[in-house]
């Protein structure tokens, strides 16, 4: 595996995957999500050393994306009944662990569907073991373990430690094995999704915790999963993780577990963001450029109803500009601009920082009619879109072998009110 260096982010972009941004915008309208399949394929190839790549579809779940993942032998993780149904609709088989349900609870619909298809479950709470065992005695399960510590700054995305609702607390393995025994359930997999970012020292602690838990559970374990959380850089101050070292740490853990047990152990990785983030671009049109006191606001037809990460997490997406006529804008003077959306809410700002403070970005001067592209928007982008302010959700387009293909129609007003009823 090659370790990637941080890309340079240009603030001028007139093409995506060789196609004109302005042409795409004219053909499909704005706001528009565009995915470059080649970038997904490259990221899949980066991880080829792992035995199994399991895509966390919650990052970007369009069934066309899932179909292409499937054709590259990438299996899927599903965190809800709807995600199981998406995977089935995209052609995944319910057999052979192609779909694994990972959650901390079952709702009634998810449990029914799992029982119907005998899907493999990654249990994030002791209750799930009992509830599954009652319906599917003799099932094999994976346990998602919270090793007692987490990582990361964002309280909203921390996935370990005692503040996290995720996983089975590391001191409760005994109780889980007892529950499993009661129903003839076998623990064949162990899973930790902590997300060490680029911190390999932290990762080695996660690996050690995995090894300890594997020894405690014993020889029934045939698969360990490293979870997701592989980072992608959203700015030039961020980096990728050293993938070679990342793999080596997990591979060594797997080998030690395998040696103690005397049988092969499969090593899975479960990325969402890493596979899809960089492939996605949200194209919006500039609708107003206005001075407000000392600030220059550039207002787009896309808002946090289309891309929520900046508002939810203070996430900084790379931003680029394309002229209305499709030309590059490298020759324009640069200005400090605050990029915002159309929503009736002052927090609808793409250039904010965590805590909601309005910031500006140095960008080429924008004019009404230009296009602004929010980049690295392929993970936790469209999937978190909403109909707030009665906005219809954007269309999605996949670029494959130089051709743009519509993979989701823009919503219409009829879609918006489809399930609403005015009683007599
Ligand atoms: C969200 C999630 C992932 C993917 O996380 P990324 O940070 O997008 O890689 C993987 N596994 C589980 C269980 C998750 O909930």
TrEMBL record:
Pathway field of the UniProt record reads: Amino-acid biosynthesis; L-lysine biosynthesis via DAP pathway; L-lysine from DL-2,6-diaminopimelate: step 1/1
The record, for SUPFAM superfamilies, names:
Alanine racemase C-terminal domain-like, PLP-binding barrel
**Where would I find the Orn/DAP/Arg decarboxylase 2 N-terminal domain in this sequence?**
52-277
Q: Which UniProt keywords apply?
A: Amino-acid biosynthesis, Decarboxylase, Lyase, Lysine biosynthesis, Pyridoxal phosphate
Q: Name one GO biological process term.
A: lysine biosynthetic process via diaminopimelate
Modified sites of kind N6-(pyridoxal phosphate)lysine: 58
Q: Which reaction does it catalyse?
A: meso-2,6-diaminopimelate + H(+) = L-lysine + CO2
Q: Which cofactor does it need?
A: pyridoxal 5'-phosphate
Q: What is its EC number?
A: 4.1.1.20
Active site residues of this protein: 344
Q: What class of enzyme is it?
A: lyase
Q: Which InterPro entries match?
A: Ala_racemase/Decarboxylase_C, DAP_deCOOHase_LysA, De-COase2_C, De-COase2_CS, De-COase2_N, Orn/DAP/Arg_de-COase, PLP-binding_barrel
The Orn/DAP/Arg decarboxylase 2 C-terminal domain extends over: 33-378
Q: Which residues bind substrate?
A: 273, 309, 313, 345, 380
Family the entry assigns = Belongs to the Orn/Lys/Arg decarboxylase class-II family. LysA subfamily.
According to the record's subunit comment, the protein's assembly and interactions are:
Homodimer.
Function, as annotated, reads:
Specifically catalyzes the decarboxylation of meso-diaminopimelate (meso-DAP) to L-lysine.
What protein am I looking at?
Diaminopimelate decarboxylase
Q: Which organism is it from?
A: Stieleria maiorica
């Amino acid at each position: 595996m090659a370790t990637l260096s941080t890309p340079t982010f240009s603030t001028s972009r007139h093409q995506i995957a060789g196609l004109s941004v302005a042409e795409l915008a004219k053909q499909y309208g704005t706001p528009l999500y565009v995915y470059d399949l080649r970038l997904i394929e490259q990221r899949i190839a980066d991880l080829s050393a792992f035995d199994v790549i399991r895509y966390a579809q919650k990052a970007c779940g369009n069934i066309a994306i899932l179909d292409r993942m499937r054709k590259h032998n990438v299996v899927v993780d599903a965190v809800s009944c709807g995600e199981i149904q998406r995977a089935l609709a995209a052609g995944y088989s319910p057999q052979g662990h192609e779909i694994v349900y990972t959650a901390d609870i079952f709702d009634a619909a998810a449990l029914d569907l799992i029982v119907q298809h005998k899907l493999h479950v990654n249990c994030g709470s002791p209750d799930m073991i009992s509830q599954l065992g009652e319906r599917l005695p003799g099932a094999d399960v994976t346990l998602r373990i919270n090793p007692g510590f987490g990582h990361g700054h964002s309280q909203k995305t921390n996935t370990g430690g005692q503040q996290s609702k995720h996983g089975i607390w590391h001191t409760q393995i005994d109780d889980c094995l007892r529950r499993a025994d009661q129903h003839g359930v076998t623990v064949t997999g162990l899973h930790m999704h902590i997300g060490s970012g680029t911190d390999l020292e932290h990762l080695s602690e996660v690996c050690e915790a995995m090894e300890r838990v594997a020894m405690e559970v014993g020889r029934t374990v045939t698969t360990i999963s490293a979870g997701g959380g592989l980072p992608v850089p959203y700015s030039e101050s961020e980096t990728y993780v050293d993938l070679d070292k990342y793999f080596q740490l997990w591979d060594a853990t797997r080998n030690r577990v395998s040696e103690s047990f005397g049988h092969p152990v499969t090593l899975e990785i479960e990325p969402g963001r890493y596979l899809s983030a960089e492939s996605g671009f949200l194209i919006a049109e500039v609708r107003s450029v206005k001075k407000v006191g000392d600030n220059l606001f550039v207002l787009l037809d896309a808002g946090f109803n289309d891309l929520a990460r900046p508002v939810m997490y203070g996430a900084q997406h790379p931003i680029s500009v394309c002229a209305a006529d499709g030309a590059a804008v490298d020759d324009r003077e640069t200005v400090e601009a605050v990029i915002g959306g159309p929503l009736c809410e002052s927090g609808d700002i793409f250039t904010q920082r965590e805590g909601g403070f309005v910031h500006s970005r140095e960008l080429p001067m924008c004019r009404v009619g230009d296009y602004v592209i929010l980049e690295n928007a392929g993970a936790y982008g469209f999937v978190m879109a909403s109909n707030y302010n009665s906005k219809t959700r954007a269309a999605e387009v996949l670029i494959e072998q130089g051709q743009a293909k519509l993979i989701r129609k823009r919503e219409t007003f009829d879609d918006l009110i489809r399930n609403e009823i005015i009683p007599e």
